[in-house]
Amino acid sequence: MTTAVEKWVEEQAALTKPDKIYWVQGTEDEMRELTKIGMTTERTGPHQTFRELNHQAFTNSYLHRSHPNDVARTEQLTFVCTPAKDDAGPNNNWMEPKEAKTMVSSLFDGCMKGRTLYVIPYMMGHPDSPYAKPCIQITDSIYVVVSMYIMTRAGKKILDRIGRSDKFVKGLHSIGELDPSKRYIMHFPQEDLVMSIGSGYGGNALLGKKCFSLRIASYQGHNEGWLAEHMIIMGVEDKKTGETMYILGSFPSACGKTNLAMIDPILEGYNVTTLGDDIAWINVGPDGRLYAINPENGFFGVAPGTGDKTNPQMIKTLKAGKFYPTLFTNTGLDTDTNSPWWEGLTDVAPAHLLDWQGNPWEAASGKVVAHPNSRFTVAAHNCPTLSNEFDNPKGVPISAILFGGRRSDTVPLVCESFDWNHGVFKASSLGSETTTAAAGQVGVVRRDPMAMLPFCGYNMADYFRHWTNVGGKLKNPPKIFFVNWFKKNAQGKFIWPGFRDNFRVIKWMMDRVKGTVSARQTPIGFMPNIADLNLKGLDISKETLDVLFEVKNDQWKKEIEGIENFYGQFGDRMPKEMTKYLADLKKNFS
Ligand code: GTP
Ligand code: SPV
Ligand code: MN
Hints:
Blueprint: H1 4-16, E1 20-23, H2 28-40, E2 51-52, E3 61-64, E4 78-80, H3 85-88, E5 93-94, H4 97-108, E6 116-124, E7 133-139, H5 142-151, E8 153-154, H6 156-162, E9 169-174, E10 184-188, E11 193-197, H7 202-205, H8 208-224, E12 227-229, E13 231-238, E14 244-250, H9 257-261, E15 270-276, E16 280-284, E17 290-293, E18 298-302, H10 312-320, E19 326-329, E20 332-334, E21 339-341, E22 353-354, E23 375-379, E24 396-404, E25 414-416, H11 420-428, E26 431-433, E27 445-447, H12 460-472, E28 479-483, H13 502-514, E29 520-522, E30 525-527, H14 542-549, H15 553-568, H16 576-589
Parallel strand pairs: 1-6, 3-19, 4-5, 4-10, 7-9, 9-11, 14-24, 24-28
Antiparallel strand pairs: 2-3, 6-7, 6-8, 10-11, 12-16, 13-14, 13-15, 16-17, 17-24, 18-23, 19-23, 20-21, 20-22, 25-28, 26-27, 29-30
Helix pairs in contact: 2-5, 11-12, 11-16, 15-16
Bound molecules: guanosine-5'-triphosphate (GTP), sulfopyruvate and manganese (II) ion.
């Protein structure tokens, strides 16, 4: 008798009409074989899928160049399809589910003619975890198959685990014609289904990542009492006591999560361990504490800016190549050494470079070598700071949550919320300057609550209420902090050194959690007494520190206006508690 998985695959094959169907087993030999095939096919544009790189420099690594129009997530082509438009909310593009399916099915019809349909059984979360979820992705891209193999726990054993059950998350993907006018990323939260066509880019095509582990999973979490968040999970061990504090960190795309997740602390006496760099699934444990797992098994990180000075642990991770292949997408190529290169990898550019599209690069051209959203895909197990708790099925207990964004002004270096609900309010009203991680204008402030604007699979008004409900179930809720590493001066230069120095702020937060330092109360929350910040060895002026911690009336008035406009879209659905906090804030600045 056919299983539910086989039946679903047969139906998708009948629609997409591939030449061949291939069930991914998940062995290393198989990936070597697929990578080899990827070195000779010309599927995704004018280039082969993979080019073998120098394995002495970057063990087991390959370069992939995407179609030039397919370099980032496309939020305007991403839809949440719920029967009622209001359930998707003003934070999502919406289409009626039947209409959406008819529309994309016509694009999927016959799209795999001449191609192989790959079936990837995979798990988000460690298979032993009660919070993990089994999934099946179908794709016609070898790049996607190898990427899924790196990013998730994939292979035949997951198929055995699903068995005859029909409880698995379904993802149908095709690169289609890589035509932006025929590109759609459609989510059907009620059916645990994603249909994505026309893009091979990470967040559009690796359906276990943003599509399932955030959009669909946030919807499941709302129904089941947990949270799916755009967050890192890190451990900070105090070497003296041997105790580890676990912290969650939420930042919008390309705002510093991966860097923070493996920060090399500037202060002595601490070890940082890495559990996740992008997504956290968070449950309330039997003891009333929050426990987080990382559903992923790898990192899909931003290459530019990653170097020995900014993120030495990631450079080691990328060179390790011990587990799975490592992929570089849309970076430049040093033709003398056959190694990947991007801005920030070394201070001086190598003599002979091809740019991300494979054209010879001239320094005088003023063009970038690597695409600003060029990325690497690498297994978490290659990371030297990977936590021993990474595979712990229960997850790790959380003591603090930090939220951040990219703000040239207005928002201070660090600020602590008064309590959980005040933290939810502040997180719900966060703004951040847009980045190249999504197609569209860069550098404009937009409201991005909990860094989830592009990823919340349902109405965000309900999402904020869900956050306060989860808080209500906690015995000892984590403290909530807000940070901004990205303040700039009049010349447009960052005034905070960032990266390793961010640990100075982490240390203050840990002291606040332990209750060993006091803080001063301001209208926006608790702020540090400067004497409590460890600034040893940092060359920073009193004036700069003042700017880092200033709270300016005119700037906050403008900020409040932005929040009011954002909240306004949700009408009466907005929790009263949130509008009350906003009204109080406004009073404080009037
Ligand atoms: P996604 O993978 O898109 O979710 O991004 P992310 O949040 O993980 O961001 P990531 O750590 O990859 O950093 C994005 C960019 O910001 C990179 O170019 C980093 O070099 C840069 N960056 C990270 N941390 C800091 C910081 O503290 N200060 C400054 N100035 N830049 C930073
Ligand atoms: C992001 O854009 O937040 C990413 C990259 O982490 S992607 O998976 O492509 O969304
Ligand atoms: Mn991300």
